[in-house]
């Protein structure tokens, strides 16, 4: 369930291009396909269908990009988290694993093309992503990433100590993994631009419209009821993710919520920007208890972490942790850091950390469980869902349809426990390697 802190002050709402004009649904509307949820997945699905000439209606309880699509940190790195490509193949089986790997690792081509074709104003830059190696022992995993991702066509390479220092401006990394195709953007601006593209292609978007149910409609397929009207459609797709509220029974039980917080500094001086992230890349500090950061178009550093203990609850302490980590990563940083914006987002986590595609009823599907891979993953999922809606056989899709299934009970606490485990593991390995720990580690 969506919950917000009184400290939520979201940078993207202050800087994103305006949203297209939309209104709530009123009365009865007929459609070929009705989509519920105007985040990246719903928007890109609607866009693909509208381009194909399908009469598509998209319903949103709040506004375009209100949920995770407008609250994430704006990283767009077409990779998987937690599981290696080898583990994904073993877990998902073939041919689905290879199909999904191909879609995900090529997702930024799709993002870049949509931004270009529809002239989306969203601060898009494609200057790469660096995962740092905090010590020599971390380089083995970096080497495996280079080998496995390059084997499927990604453009990545290994960085030595001097190269990673030159790219990031940080002397703290023993080496690193550079993903050259990665980028970053204003995520809310991107979502709003996708909404404008859907409308341009003659798709219909109704915001401020709460879906209250979905029932069979004799002779017409399905009737999606809302607080102000209804949509009658042959097919229905739920893409509400972590911000699922009603719509279909037990859909909100298919994942567990993991919160993440994002903060943005003041606009930093040109002198600072010449030494801190001088190539405007996205940086991952290489620890399991992650610290990921990059610039926005104004020159603010936007950084994200997961709550843990006091971190995320005590705002003064949290800001201090983020400042100390940034200054430790960049010892030459002399400018006083002030975090002008601070907000929370929610992730729909499930244990596989790859999306789950649910067969709810004949002609009705849902997709949840993006697990924090919003921008590239949500953008490529539209191609899969639109293929389903257009009648592509299930055994030819890039995700396997499965019965609705509740997330295991342990997912309510496992992600938090894993973060603590990662921190302990990294601290031990860093000490054994004779490297320096970051503050508050």
What do you see in this structure?
The chain is an alpha/beta fold and 441 residues long. It has two domains: 11-73 and 188-253 and 351-407, FAD/NAD(P)-binding domain, CATH 3.50.50.60; 129-180 and 267-337 and 408-441, D-Amino Acid Oxidase, Chain A, domain 2 (2-Layer Sandwich), CATH 3.30.9. The protein contains 13 helices and 19 strands. The protein has helices spanning 11-15, 40-51, 68-71, 85-92, 96-105, 107-117, 139-151, 161-168, 187-200, 270-275, 315-329, 374-389, 414-432; strands at residues 27-36, 56-59, 75-76, 129-133, 156-159, 175-179, 183-184, 204-206, 211-217, 221-226, 229-238, 256-265, 282-284, 292-295, 301-305, 339-349, 356-361, 364-368, 401-403. Strands 1, 2, 8, 9, 10, 11, 17, 18 and 19 form a nine-stranded mixed beta sheet that branches. The chain has an eight-stranded mixed beta sheet with strand order 5-6-4-13-14-15-12-16. It has a two-stranded antiparallel sheet with strand order 3-7. Strand 10 (221-226) and strand 11 (229-238) form a beta hairpin. The longest helix is centred in the C-terminal third of the chain and has 19 residues, at 414-432. The protein is globular. The two termini are 30 Å apart. Residues 1-7 have low confidence and may be disordered.
């Amino acid at each position: 369930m969506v919950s917000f802190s009184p400290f939520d002050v979201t940078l993207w709402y202050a800087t994103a291009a305006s949203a297209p004009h939309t209104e709530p649904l009123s009365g009865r509307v007929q459609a070929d396909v009705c989509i519920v949820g105007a985040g990246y997945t719903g928007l890109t699905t609607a866009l693909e269908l509208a381009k194909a000439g399908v009469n598509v209606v998209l319903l949103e309880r709040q506004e375009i990009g209100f949920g995770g699509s407008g609250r994430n940190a704006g990283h767009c790195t077409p990779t998987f988290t937690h599981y290696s490509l080898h583990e994904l193949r073993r877990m998902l089986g073939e041919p689905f694993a290879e199909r999904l790997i191909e879609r995900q690792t090529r997702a930024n081509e799709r993002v870049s093309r949509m931004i270009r074709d529809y002239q989306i104003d969203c601060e898009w830059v494609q200057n790469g992503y660096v995962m740092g190696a905090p010590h020599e022992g971390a380089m083995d995993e970096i080497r495996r990433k280079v080998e496995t991702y390059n084997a499927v066509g990604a453009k990545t390479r290994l960085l030595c100590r001097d190269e990673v220092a030159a790219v990031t401006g940080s002397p703290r990394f023993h080496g690193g993994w550079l993903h050259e195709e990665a980028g970053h953007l204003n995520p809310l601006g991107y979502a709003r631009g996708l909404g404008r593209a859907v409308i341009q292609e003659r798709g219909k978007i109704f915001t401020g419209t709460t879906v209250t149910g979905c029932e069979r409609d004799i002779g017409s397929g399905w009737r999606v009821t809302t607080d102000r009207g209804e949509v009658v459609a042959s097919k229905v797709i739920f893409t509400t993710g972590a911000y699922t509220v009603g719509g279909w029974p037990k859909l909100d039980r298919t994942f567990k919520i993991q919160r993440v917080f994002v903060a943005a500094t003041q606009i930093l001086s040109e002198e600072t920007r010449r030494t801190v992230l001088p190539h405007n890349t996205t940086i991952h500090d290489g620890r399991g208890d992650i610290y990921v950061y990059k610039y926005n178009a104004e020159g603010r550093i936007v950084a994200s972490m997961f709550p843990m203990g006091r971190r995320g609850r005590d705002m003064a302490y949290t800001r201090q942790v983020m400042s100390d980590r940034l200054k430790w990563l960049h010892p030459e940083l002399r400018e006083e850091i002030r975090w002008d914006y601070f907000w929370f987002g929610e992730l729909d986590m499930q244990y596989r950390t790859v999306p789950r595609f649910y067969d709810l009823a004949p002609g009705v599907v849902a997709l949840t469980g993006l697990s924090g891979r919003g921008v590239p993953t949500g953008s490529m999922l539209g191609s899969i869902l639109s293929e389903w809606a257009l009648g592509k056989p299930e055994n030819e899709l890039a995700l396997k349809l499965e019965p609705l299934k509740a997330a295991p009970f342990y997912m309510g606490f496992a992600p938090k426990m894993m973060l603590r485990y990662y921190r302990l593991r990294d601290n031990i390995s860093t000490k054994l390697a004779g490297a320096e720990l970051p503050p508050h580690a």
